[in-house]
Amino acid sequence: MKINFDALVIWNQDEVEQLLDTCSDSFRPFLITALHSGCRRSELFNLRWDDVDFLSETINIRTSKSGKSRTIPMDATLKATLSYLPSRFKKGWVFPSPVTGE
Questions:
Q1: pTM higher than the cut 0.70
Q2: Which of 1, 60, 68, 94 could form a disulfide with 51 if both were Cys (CB 3.0 to 4.6 A apart)?
Q3: Over 80: is that where the pLDDT of 92 sits?
C-alpha cells in the first residue's frame, strides 16, 4: 500500500495509534515527526540536524513548498522522538537513507 503524504487526510486518535502500532520501529520516528510537525515528506527527507534546535524547541524548514523558510515548534513528543535518534550524533541528515546514509 502506498501512502500519499501530500493529500490532506484527517485521522482520529484511534487511527493514528493503529498506524503507529503497525509501522516498523525504524519508520515510527519519521511518522511521528510528520504527524507532530505537519512537514511534507520532502521537507523531512531534507531535514538536517542543523535545522533542529532543542533549546528553542523549533525546527527550521529551509525551503518549503512555497520556496520560503518557516519555523515549526516542537511539542514534547516530537522533541523526545528526535532526541533518541542515533543519527543525531552524526550531525548530518535527521532521517538518513538506511542504504546510503545520505
A1: yes
A2: 60
A3: yes
